[in-house]
Amino acid sequence: MLSRVHSAALLGVNAVGVDVEVDVANGGIPGLALVGLASGAVQEATVRVAAAIRNLGIKLPQRRVTVNLAPADLRKEGTALDLPIAAGLLAACGAIPVHALDGWWLAGELSLSGELRPVRGILPFAMQGRRQGARGVLVPPSNALEASVVEGLEVLAPAHLGEVVAWVHGRAGLAGPASALPAPRDAAAPDLCEVAGQPTARRALEVAAAGGHNLLLLGPPGSGKTMLARRLPGILPPLSFDEALEASVVHSVAGLLRGRGLLGERPFRAPHHSISDAGLVGGSSVLRPGEVSLAHQGVLFLDELPEFRRHVLDALRQPAEDGEVALVRAGRSVAYPARFMLVGAMNPCPCGWRGDSRRPCRCTLQDLARYRRRLSGPLLDRVDLHVPVPPVPAAVLGEAGSGEPSAAARARVERARGLQMEREGVPNARLRGAALRRHASPDAAGRALLAAAVDRLGLSARAHERILRVARTIADLEGVEAVQARHLAEAIQYRALDRPLGTGGIS
Questions:
Q1: Rounded to two decimals, what is the model's pTM?
Q2: pLDDT in tens, 438-458
Q3: What is the C-alpha separation between 363 and 461, in angstroms, rounded?
Q4: Sign of dihedral through CA atoms 322, 305, 496, 192?
């Protein structure tokens, strides 16, 4: 007897429909053959499925069984095909009706006892099922919320293979998800009011949030760089539904969305400086999204930036510019989204105390030059704001908790971001070509100021454009239509690392 059950396999952040075909033949040597370009984890499904069915008290016939995973030229990985293989085998053996699961898509890992365990990628799995006309999906309980995000699709969440068999025979019902609403903003999230002093850095943080600009914070240990960076998500605009869906798909593929529906907050990722290039941008032997993709629609924070290996940091250059990562491994090619705000933090010198009046800096200009060379020029060129974070005087430390809260800054950021979305539909950090010239061309005084800065600091064409984008954001925060010289002056002020070594400030 032949049976067919619908499921899907992951390809990047998308799912591709897979038909699990099971044939039980009358002749031939008894055994089970699994074909269709299955990985090791999928090949092992036959052992888990056989044990789960046996522990249901169902005896499989001693016949030749062939399981085909179509399309056969698509590599299947992971454990999500356990449940559809088990259902197909039960149908082919006559334990359940052959057509009982028509219109349903199945996914889930099976334990030896038949319990369903969560798997990666259920959100794109459900989206693909909806596109291909599925009536509903059967998924593990921990994955039910993310599947229920997809409208027009019935979601059932059996906890055990036996529940599926009972439901097919009409002996019992199956539970669905509780709710798919995103969680509200966390009232206990880090707030800007806890930051003492640092008016310039706070202003730069607001400018970066308003325009979606990359940011680098430079200052001695304990000056508040990490504290400021961790408060950036609290002043960013809330996720739109489309943004939340894009970010949630990446987290689903990475297996980080279990027990949740859509993400309610912008992602904030802060990997350790020992991370590999595959961990940062994705890849390795099994293609998985890296930290740049997990930070999609959110913030990627790299603390102690010069301590990251240089080739790892240089891998950021392409995704920071293009908003996606294209990976090729063993003939397979996938693209992961990577539209993130890059925020870095670093000390001003190897010892960390340059510019701090409390402790002497013993670094020479040669030491400082070697330290700066850990960051490539092309990477720094992609950072819009380089902002000094000086040490906070003791008299100001007592003011922590009394400053302006994140809610006030977020209101200004949302107003400025709203102007940008009405203008071109993208944040200012993504303005390009004609759109940038149309909306960020300065007045005569501004052009003269910018030309002088380019000549004096030796700025690249990319840095020139980034200054214009930042100036456009500053004008938006002010509610001014035209970019003026004062907006450019502030934007140029945020290019601290473009100043020659030994010329004051943090350098």
A1: 0.91
A2: 999 999 999 999 999 999 988
A3: 32
A4: positive
